[in-house]
Amino acid sequence: MTIDGKRIAEEIRRELEVRVRGVGKSASRRIRLAIIQAGENEVSAKFIKQKEKFASEAGIETRIYNLPQGIFTNELRKKVAEVCHIKQNDGVIIQLPLPKQINTQYILNGIILKKDVDVLSEKAMGKFLAGKGILPPVTGAVKEIFDRHKVEVKGKNIVIVGAGMLVGKPTAIWLINEGATVTVLNEFTLEAKSYLLKANIIVSGVGKPGIITEDMVREGAIVIDAGTSEQSGKLVGDVSPDVEKMASLFTPVPGGVGPITVAMVFKNLLELNRY
User: Fold this and answer.
1) Which CATH class is domain 137-258?
2) What is the per-residue pLDDT for 25?
3) What is the pLDDT of residues 146-176, one digit of tens each?
4) CATH, domain range 30-113
Protein backbone atom coordinates (compact mmCIF):
# COMPACT_ATOMS: atom_id res chain seq x y z
CA MET A 1 0.00 0.00 0.00
CA THR A 2 1.24 3.46 -0.92
CA ILE A 3 0.71 6.07 1.79
CA ASP A 4 -1.15 9.20 0.69
CA GLY A 5 0.59 11.79 2.84
CA LYS A 6 -1.41 14.64 1.38
CA ARG A 7 -4.69 13.02 2.46
CA ILE A 8 -3.41 12.39 5.99
CA ALA A 9 -2.08 15.94 6.24
CA GLU A 10 -5.44 17.30 5.11
CA GLU A 11 -7.24 15.29 7.79
CA ILE A 12 -4.87 16.68 10.42
CA ARG A 13 -5.35 20.20 9.04
CA ARG A 14 -9.11 19.94 9.43
CA GLU A 15 -8.68 18.76 13.02
CA LEU A 16 -6.36 21.68 13.79
CA GLU A 17 -8.68 24.15 12.07
CA VAL A 18 -11.48 23.16 14.43
CA ARG A 19 -9.19 23.69 17.43
CA VAL A 20 -7.98 27.06 16.15
CA ARG A 21 -11.53 28.21 15.37
CA GLY A 22 -12.72 27.21 18.83
CA VAL A 23 -10.01 29.17 20.61
CA GLY A 24 -10.19 32.04 18.14
CA LYS A 25 -13.64 33.06 19.36
CA SER A 26 -12.14 34.21 22.66
CA ALA A 27 -8.60 35.13 21.50
CA SER A 28 -7.58 38.66 20.56
CA ARG A 29 -5.42 37.48 17.64
CA ARG A 30 -4.52 34.45 15.55
CA ILE A 31 -1.79 32.07 16.66
CA ARG A 32 1.42 32.67 14.68
CA LEU A 33 4.45 30.69 13.53
CA ALA A 34 7.67 32.56 12.75
CA ILE A 35 10.00 31.04 10.13
CA ILE A 36 13.62 32.20 9.90
CA GLN A 37 15.49 31.53 6.66
CA ALA A 38 19.10 32.48 6.00
CA GLY A 39 20.16 32.49 2.36
CA GLU A 40 18.41 30.86 -0.57
CA ASN A 41 17.73 27.17 -1.07
CA GLU A 42 15.17 25.89 -3.59
CA VAL A 43 14.17 22.83 -1.56
CA SER A 44 13.81 24.94 1.61
CA ALA A 45 11.75 27.51 -0.29
CA LYS A 46 9.33 24.76 -1.39
CA PHE A 47 8.94 23.57 2.20
CA ILE A 48 8.28 27.11 3.42
CA LYS A 49 5.56 27.53 0.80
CA GLN A 50 3.97 24.27 1.97
CA LYS A 51 3.97 25.58 5.53
CA GLU A 52 2.47 28.91 4.52
CA LYS A 53 -0.30 27.19 2.56
CA PHE A 54 -1.10 24.75 5.38
CA ALA A 55 -1.16 27.55 7.95
CA SER A 56 -3.42 29.76 5.87
CA GLU A 57 -5.95 26.97 5.38
CA ALA A 58 -5.88 26.10 9.09
CA GLY A 59 -6.42 29.70 10.21
CA ILE A 60 -2.86 30.13 11.48
CA GLU A 61 -0.69 33.15 10.73
CA THR A 62 2.92 32.88 9.50
CA ARG A 63 5.72 35.44 9.52
CA ILE A 64 8.80 34.83 7.35
CA TYR A 65 12.13 36.41 8.28
CA ASN A 66 14.48 36.28 5.26
CA LEU A 67 18.12 36.91 6.11
CA PRO A 68 21.16 37.21 3.80
CA GLN A 69 23.31 34.24 2.77
CA GLY A 70 26.45 35.87 4.18
CA ILE A 71 25.12 36.46 7.70
CA PHE A 72 27.49 35.47 10.51
CA THR A 73 26.63 33.15 13.40
CA ASN A 74 26.50 35.84 16.10
CA GLU A 75 24.31 38.10 13.96
CA LEU A 76 21.90 35.26 13.28
CA ARG A 77 21.79 34.27 16.96
CA LYS A 78 20.83 37.84 17.88
CA LYS A 79 18.07 37.79 15.26
CA VAL A 80 16.75 34.48 16.61
CA ALA A 81 16.60 35.96 20.11
CA GLU A 82 14.77 39.01 18.77
CA VAL A 83 12.22 36.89 16.89
CA CYS A 84 11.67 34.59 19.89
CA HIS A 85 10.92 37.51 22.18
CA ILE A 86 8.26 39.01 19.94
CA LYS A 87 5.10 38.15 21.86
CA GLN A 88 3.03 37.59 18.73
CA ASN A 89 5.39 34.81 17.57
CA ASP A 90 3.94 31.76 19.32
CA GLY A 91 6.38 29.33 17.71
CA VAL A 92 9.71 29.75 15.93
CA ILE A 93 11.50 27.51 13.45
CA ILE A 94 14.86 27.80 11.71
CA GLN A 95 14.59 26.56 8.14
CA LEU A 96 17.45 24.14 7.51
CA PRO A 97 20.01 23.86 6.08
CA LEU A 98 21.76 27.05 7.16
CA PRO A 99 24.69 28.53 5.21
CA LYS A 100 28.00 26.69 5.68
CA GLN A 101 29.62 29.43 7.79
CA ILE A 102 26.90 29.13 10.46
CA ASN A 103 27.24 27.07 13.66
CA THR A 104 23.86 25.39 13.26
CA GLN A 105 23.41 23.92 16.74
CA TYR A 106 24.36 27.19 18.40
CA ILE A 107 21.62 28.90 16.38
CA LEU A 108 19.04 26.21 17.15
CA ASN A 109 19.84 26.54 20.86
CA GLY A 110 18.71 30.15 20.61
CA ILE A 111 15.08 29.08 20.25
CA ILE A 112 13.36 29.23 23.62
CA LEU A 113 11.84 25.97 24.81
CA LYS A 114 8.19 26.99 24.77
CA LYS A 115 8.45 28.10 21.12
CA ASP A 116 10.59 25.24 19.73
CA VAL A 117 8.06 23.43 17.54
CA ASP A 118 10.81 21.56 15.65
CA VAL A 119 12.38 20.18 18.87
CA LEU A 120 15.90 21.03 17.68
CA SER A 121 17.40 23.01 20.56
CA GLU A 122 19.38 21.02 23.12
CA LYS A 123 16.82 21.84 25.82
CA ALA A 124 13.90 20.64 23.70
CA MET A 125 15.81 17.52 22.64
CA GLY A 126 16.67 16.79 26.28
CA LYS A 127 13.00 16.96 27.18
CA PHE A 128 12.20 14.61 24.29
CA LEU A 129 14.92 12.19 25.42
CA ALA A 130 13.32 12.14 28.86
CA GLY A 131 10.05 11.04 27.25
CA LYS A 132 8.32 14.35 27.89
CA GLY A 133 6.85 16.99 25.63
CA ILE A 134 6.23 16.91 21.90
CA LEU A 135 7.79 14.70 19.22
CA PRO A 136 10.08 16.14 16.52
CA PRO A 137 7.91 16.64 13.39
CA VAL A 138 9.38 13.87 11.20
CA THR A 139 9.22 11.39 14.07
CA GLY A 140 5.67 12.53 14.72
CA ALA A 141 4.85 11.94 11.05
CA VAL A 142 6.26 8.40 11.22
CA LYS A 143 4.20 7.74 14.36
CA GLU A 144 1.10 9.13 12.65
CA ILE A 145 1.56 6.71 9.73
CA PHE A 146 2.10 3.75 12.04
CA ASP A 147 -0.89 4.64 14.24
CA ARG A 148 -3.24 5.06 11.28
CA HIS A 149 -2.18 1.73 9.74
CA LYS A 150 -1.97 -0.16 13.05
CA VAL A 151 1.75 -0.92 12.70
CA GLU A 152 3.12 -2.46 15.90
CA VAL A 153 6.81 -1.57 16.34
CA LYS A 154 7.46 -3.43 19.60
CA GLY A 155 9.74 -6.38 18.92
CA LYS A 156 10.22 -5.45 15.25
CA ASN A 157 13.63 -5.30 13.58
CA ILE A 158 13.88 -1.70 12.34
CA VAL A 159 16.72 -0.20 10.32
CA ILE A 160 17.24 3.56 10.27
CA VAL A 161 19.32 4.84 7.36
CA GLY A 162 21.11 8.01 8.38
CA ALA A 163 21.70 9.49 11.83
CA GLY A 164 20.76 13.11 11.18
CA MET A 165 19.10 15.43 13.68
CA LEU A 166 15.87 15.74 11.67
CA VAL A 167 15.10 12.09 10.94
CA GLY A 168 17.52 9.39 12.05
CA LYS A 169 18.46 10.24 15.63
CA PRO A 170 15.06 11.27 17.00
CA THR A 171 13.19 8.49 15.20
CA ALA A 172 15.67 5.88 16.46
CA ILE A 173 15.26 7.16 20.02
CA TRP A 174 11.47 7.07 19.82
CA LEU A 175 11.46 3.54 18.35
CA ILE A 176 13.85 2.26 21.03
CA ASN A 177 11.55 3.69 23.69
CA GLU A 178 8.65 1.89 21.99
CA GLY A 179 10.41 -1.48 22.32
CA ALA A 180 11.77 -1.94 18.80
CA THR A 181 15.16 -3.44 17.97
CA VAL A 182 16.85 -0.60 16.12
CA THR A 183 19.93 -0.54 13.92
CA VAL A 184 21.20 2.81 12.63
CA LEU A 185 23.25 2.80 9.43
CA ASN A 186 25.62 5.60 8.48
CA GLU A 187 28.20 6.33 5.80
CA PHE A 188 30.73 4.10 7.56
CA THR A 189 28.49 1.02 7.78
CA LEU A 190 29.94 -1.98 5.96
CA GLU A 191 27.60 -4.26 4.01
CA ALA A 192 24.55 -2.05 4.63
CA LYS A 193 22.50 -4.24 2.29
CA SER A 194 22.72 -7.19 4.70
CA TYR A 195 21.11 -5.12 7.46
CA LEU A 196 18.37 -3.79 5.20
CA LEU A 197 17.38 -7.25 3.98
CA LYS A 198 16.70 -8.34 7.57
CA ALA A 199 14.54 -5.34 8.41
CA ASN A 200 10.80 -5.52 9.01
CA ILE A 201 10.71 -1.72 8.78
CA ILE A 202 13.09 0.70 7.06
CA VAL A 203 13.14 4.44 7.75
CA SER A 204 15.51 6.51 5.61
CA GLY A 205 16.45 10.16 6.01
CA VAL A 206 19.76 10.64 4.22
CA GLY A 207 18.80 12.98 1.40
CA LYS A 208 20.61 11.14 -1.41
CA PRO A 209 18.58 10.09 -4.46
CA GLY A 210 17.80 6.40 -4.87
CA ILE A 211 20.36 4.94 -2.48
CA ILE A 212 17.94 2.16 -1.44
CA THR A 213 17.07 -0.09 -4.35
CA GLU A 214 14.74 -3.04 -4.90
CA ASP A 215 17.42 -5.65 -4.22
CA MET A 216 18.03 -4.21 -0.73
CA VAL A 217 14.49 -4.70 0.59
CA ARG A 218 12.76 -7.87 1.71
CA GLU A 219 9.29 -8.69 0.40
CA GLY A 220 6.57 -7.20 2.60
CA ALA A 221 8.79 -4.74 4.48
CA ILE A 222 7.45 -1.35 5.54
CA VAL A 223 9.49 1.40 3.87
CA ILE A 224 9.29 4.97 5.13
CA ASP A 225 11.21 7.41 2.92
CA ALA A 226 11.82 10.63 4.84
CA GLY A 227 14.78 11.72 2.74
CA THR A 228 14.40 14.52 0.21
CA SER A 229 16.79 16.00 -2.30
CA GLU A 230 16.60 17.68 -5.66
CA GLN A 231 17.36 15.95 -8.93
CA SER A 232 16.79 17.57 -12.31
CA GLY A 233 14.57 20.18 -10.69
CA LYS A 234 12.36 17.63 -8.93
CA LEU A 235 12.07 16.45 -5.33
CA VAL A 236 13.15 12.84 -5.00
CA GLY A 237 13.61 10.42 -2.13
CA ASP A 238 16.27 8.06 -0.81
CA VAL A 239 14.30 5.04 -1.99
CA SER A 240 13.98 3.98 -5.61
CA PRO A 241 10.33 4.00 -6.78
CA ASP A 242 10.79 0.34 -7.79
CA VAL A 243 10.74 -0.58 -4.08
CA GLU A 244 7.03 0.29 -3.93
CA LYS A 245 5.98 -3.08 -5.38
CA MET A 246 8.06 -4.92 -2.74
CA ALA A 247 6.74 -3.08 0.31
CA SER A 248 3.60 -3.67 2.35
CA LEU A 249 3.58 0.06 3.20
CA PHE A 250 5.50 2.63 1.17
CA THR A 251 5.82 6.41 1.34
CA PRO A 252 6.54 8.15 -1.98
CA VAL A 253 8.52 11.34 -2.46
CA PRO A 254 6.95 13.79 -2.90
CA GLY A 255 3.57 13.27 -1.26
CA GLY A 256 4.47 10.88 1.53
CA VAL A 257 6.17 11.85 4.79
CA GLY A 258 6.68 15.50 3.75
CA PRO A 259 3.08 16.78 3.94
CA ILE A 260 2.51 14.96 7.24
CA THR A 261 5.69 16.50 8.68
CA VAL A 262 4.37 19.96 7.82
CA ALA A 263 1.11 19.10 9.58
CA MET A 264 3.03 17.94 12.67
CA VAL A 265 4.85 21.29 12.88
CA PHE A 266 1.49 23.01 13.33
CA LYS A 267 0.17 20.31 15.63
CA ASN A 268 3.22 20.96 17.83
CA LEU A 269 2.56 24.71 17.65
CA LEU A 270 -0.92 24.21 19.03
CA GLU A 271 0.26 21.74 21.67
CA LEU A 272 2.92 24.13 22.97
CA ASN A 273 0.35 26.91 23.19
CA ARG A 274 -2.33 24.62 24.69
CA TYR A 275 -4.81 25.03 21.90
Assistant:
1) alpha beta
2) 56
3) 999 999 999 999 999 999 999 999 999 999 9
4) 3.40.50.10860
